[in-house]
């Protein structure tokens, strides 16, 4: 039980982190797609 919990907690944290990263990337891509790219150049 303990070893399962120890393995599950970081996996859950990583899952949430990965989802957050994915949404951030999508926001950036959306901004770039709307002409936000010109701001970088």
UniProtKB/TrEMBL annotation:
Listed name of the protein: Uncharacterized protein
Phylogenetic placement of the source organism: Bacteria, Pseudomonadati, Pseudomonadota, Betaproteobacteria, Burkholderiales
